[in-house]
Amino acid sequence: MSRGIISLTTHAARAAHCAPVVESLVGQAKSAGLEVCLTVQSEAYRLLPHSVKSLPMQFIVEEKDIGSNMKYLYAMKRFPDLPIIAVDDDNIFWDGTPSGMMLWHSRLPHCIICRRWREIVWTASGKMVPFTFKSFPLRDCRSLPPGGVLHVTNGFPEHCAGVLYPPGCFKIDDSVIAEAEAKAPHDDDVFAHILALRNRVETFQIHDPAYLKVQRDKTDPFIKASGLWKNGNGGQRSTQTLLRFEDELRAARSERP
């Protein structure tokens, strides 16, 4: 029986080239007692190589493409009793990443666990500052002690480095899926953070020595070039999405200790 799900999606521009990422995830999942679930729109599924379709993993094929939030919403709906590790389809994690996240899950079973997050910057008057949020860990980050965790209270985890969500942390129904499509179709990191705030699920960055020293996850140049962050447009898009939820984010920030 699976101990958890590694969940991702891909789109038509990437589907034919995602085999190295998916194959690596399936290999690491097996040794950790996990299972991979790939959620795709039907057109993207047809473009997947045979090598991917024949892998021992779960597939969720949807007629409608709701955007990048497909990587975790549908898996959470299908597997409500299992932890979900949401990942991007353009990173190949270094060996041990999923099993390491599951180890931390055993220590923090009701919390979101990440290796990387982005800070949201506010002015003294409580206004969000566009385009200024920065990513942690930085190469010289010393705020996270060896073997320790950092409570993330003003930022959102990034799926590019893997994010573990505890079982049943979000209640996923048609209204949540519709909101994700309407308000954050390309900003799964931001929308998942909004759901975490609404459901009062705390987030912790875990200590991962190799990742803190230098990002060892590998990226495929072709897949990366077809991503939404190319030419810097991803930062602008994420900022626009954050501003849609500014009032909600500000209210949650004021409730923090």
Question: Can you describe what's shown?
Answer:
The chain has 257 residues and is α/β, with parallel strands linked by helices. The protein has a single domain, classed as Spore Coat Polysaccharide Biosynthesis Protein SpsA, Chain A, CATH 3.90.550. Helices cover 38% and strands 18% of the residues. The protein has eleven helices and 13 strands. The strands form three sheets. The chain has an eight-stranded mixed sheet with strand order 3-2-1-4-11-6-12-9, sandwiched between helices. A three-stranded antiparallel sheet has the order 8-7-10. Strand 1, helix 1 (19-32) and strand 2 (35-41) form a beta-alpha-beta unit. Helix 1 (19-32) packs across helix 5 (97-107). The longest helix is centred in the first third of the chain and has 14 residues, at 19-32.
Quick synopsis:
The protein has 257 residues and is an alpha/beta fold. It has helices at 19-32, 42-47, 50-53, 70-78, 97-107, 174-183, 188-198, 209-213, 221-225, 233-244, 246-255; strands at residues 5-9, 35-41, 58-62, 84-86, 91-92, 112-114, 117-119, 135-136, 149-152, 155-157, 163-165, 203-206, 218-219. Strand 1 (5-9), helix 1 (19-32) and strand 2 form a beta-alpha-beta unit.
